[in-house]
Amino acid sequence: MKTIKIPTELQKMNNFFKNKGFEAFLVGGAVRDMIRGKEASDWDIATNASPKEVTSIFNKVIPTGIEHGTVTVIFMGHHIEVTTYRTETDYSDGRHPDKVTYAATIEKDLSRRDFTMNALAANLDTGMIVDPFNGQKDIKKKIIRTVGNPLERFSEDGLRPIRAIRFASQLGYAIEKNTLDAISQTIEITKKISIERFRDEFLKIISSDNSLLGLQLLEQTGELAFFIPELTSCRNVVQADNRGFHKFDVLDHLFYSCNGARKNSIEPFIVPLAALFHDIGKPSVRKVETDGLGNTIYTFFNHEKASSKIASQVFDRLKLPKATNKYVCHLIEQHMFHYESNWTDAAIRRFLVRITPAPGLLPLEVENPLNQTLKDLFDLRIADVTGMTGMPSLLSKGPWSQNLLEFKDRIDTILAQENALGLKNLDITGKDLIANGIPSGKAIGNILQELLETVLEDPRTNKKEQLLQIALHIWESKQF
Questions:
Q1: Among 201, 250, 362, 414, which one is least packed by beta carbons within 10 Å?
Q2: Distance (Å, rounded) from C-alpha 268 to C-alpha 265?
Q3: Contact criterion met (CB below 8 Å) for 114 and 148
Q4: pTM, 2 dp
């Protein structure tokens, strides 16, 4: 019988259970990952000790889910969920059991779990694996299969179908046919789950290494059409014409863009989320035209603005944090930049002003918001280009990569010169203008904005005396 090495902390924790006459098992995802040869530090324990008995054994215990037999034990710096063996019956809300009953054995406890690969336990004393549903075999075959009848498992908990898709996306596993069929057949149960639970699984899907598989499964099973119908409206919206920019319809382009997006922003889902929604407004602005040679071409004028608006509405519905919503939509709205070598330095400075996030726009604090936005915007461009053909190799050489590298080098040069890229960088303030006879009010803001335009065009003008002369001239000539 197979065994795994039990971490030292859990061996020590087990001694406390043994000394009181109880048994304890490591269960769930940690066992699955250790069998896969992966490290697992998020530990869940199942035991025949009741919550009251667990509380009496350990010094620091939090009653996190005591109504379901679960407490959190703080042990050697780890927060470890400890749950008494249990069975569950009746799920009238399609999510939570109406009744929880303590069970006598670990095997009985494992029978209530979702998938065979998660219905595994490792004895904390011996490391021996308990595997009543052949989970190890499914892990070896890379198959996701429910414990028992999939229609019953999914009817009990509407989140389980989304979890199946998330596991497929994260692990690269195939969903067993009966299990996959049951996802579509129990969609009415899945519709009962809270939007927050769907959102959390959805963000894990798009942050995974194989988000393409997860997104395709969401569409195939009908889950995407229910939770984010705005995306499915992009299916069969043709954009490929003789200009050769696109290979796919809009939805597949978004899927491949998301799949090709880097996950190294301030949150791993930021750029994938922007990539998945960056063209979602295309169906609403699409026009079919003809070029001078009679060829059909498709245009999507201002689609970035339409996409940002639709994405914001979806993110509100998914209850994403407002700052995340605004920042991702900022990336979407700015993704249509088309740098050319003949851009002047002033044009690049104006680009930097345009993409600079407003104070507090980023969902997390970073040392340099502009640099972070630049990085994310370039990563979004890379994802967008990848999504045109589905081949990341397109960016490894050729005009796309050379263009981005050249643009980045020129941006780095301008940033190194510490140019004024905002009103706060001007060598003059509104108080200076007021002190020199320009009355406070709307005119001050307008004049400062014109001064910034002047400095963006020629950074050498960013000197107080020179700016004051220009400001007085503006005031005298325009009389705001």
A1: 414
A2: 6
A3: no
A4: 0.86
